[in-house]
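Our consortium's second objective concerns turning raw sequence data into structural hypotheses that experimental partners can test. To show how far this objective has progressed, the report includes one record in full. It was chosen at random from the queue rather than selected for favorable results. The single chain below, 420 residues long, was entered without modification.
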Amino acid sequence: MIDDNSRRQFLQALAIAGPSMLMAKKLMAQIPDTLIPGIGPYSDEWLPVGMRSRFVDNVNGLRVHVLETGYETPNRRVLLLLHGFPELAYSWRKVMVPLAEAGYHVLAPDLRGYGRTTGWSSDYDTDLTPFRMLNKVRDAIGLISAFGYRYIDAVIGHDFGSPLAAWCAVTRPDIFRSVVMMSAPFGGTPSIPFDTISNSTLESISGPSIYDDLANLPRPRKHYQRYYNTRGANESMWHAEQGLSNFIRAYYHHKSADWKDNRPYRLAARTAVEWAKMPTYYIMDLNDSMAETVARVMPTTSEINANTWLTEAELEVYSAEYGRTSFQGGLNSYRMGASGIGNAEMQLYAGKTIDQPSMFISGASDWGTYQNPGSFERMQERTCTDMRSVHLVEGAGHWVQQEQASETSRLLLAFLDSLA
């Protein structure tokens, strides 16, 4: 337990450090870990009844923070839940208890780069290779193994956790017996050049990229993942002018069904003109930060008071955790993808399909289903050979397991029942 004097000393150190992350880190290094607020498990006040917060050491170089339900009795079927950005294991809080009540042991970790999981670097200039996709699959396997399981019944991923869940299923179908992807369709594994022996030379075709085309539109734009690669992205969100809590509130609102302009549809092609039809949380104005982007759609006081899926108390959990860690750990995963790190080893699985039972869930108001034109269709037609069902949930935007927790729980349990 952290005494008031230790907490005061820690907060004073951060106040002295001010905006200097380097100074903050130097001061924090002088304070024992046991005295740093947030290093221990969650307070019971943060958790639903029946859920616990704990740590698992020595998982692929990490100390993993895990939320857990259904731990009271042995020999249960097992589920692994993988969150997205800017989320936490806490994002699964509304579905974990119903799943446990149905007889499952449910594990939801803070992923590498997030929350109370430690062993990763939050520096912009850090080595990004630990954040590559297949290393995060190793994280998942290591966690399962630490709990004493040879396999689990399903891996379930949302947002950035969706392709991670898909890659778990691609690489180790013996461990991950089924997969549910949410809000981000998995379009398939990378390809390797095929039937090229008759071509003595392969011409390199150069020209403007889709990102150049976005910048050259009459209303100049940029893709949000390109923005997340910039050095200033973390700082602009972490120390947003409107405050961290208001930034997270607006970001979540903008991508939810509560923002009434979320009316997604299939885009004709992967072109700048088509991409520019999406809202500004995906296709940003060229000179805006994400904090400036979402500030324009900050919900009103009445809208905040009417929000039952993200209360002020729940928002405080996200604010406290990201206030402590910053967003850089999560952003490093986006940067890893854009840098091409890990692409070569992923080509080992070129052409491989997901053959175990699968399902896709998204909100009917979620643009994430369509942001990569063709992925939604390829997932159903080629990538997943045993896709049991696809659901676009009414009344939900991007945060489907939070916005419509009861319906999401029902769909998950129906899918899991179909596996018997």
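The partners drew two points from this record. The first helix runs from residue 4 to 17. Residues 210-333 form one domain. Both points have been shared with the crystallography group to help prioritize constructs.
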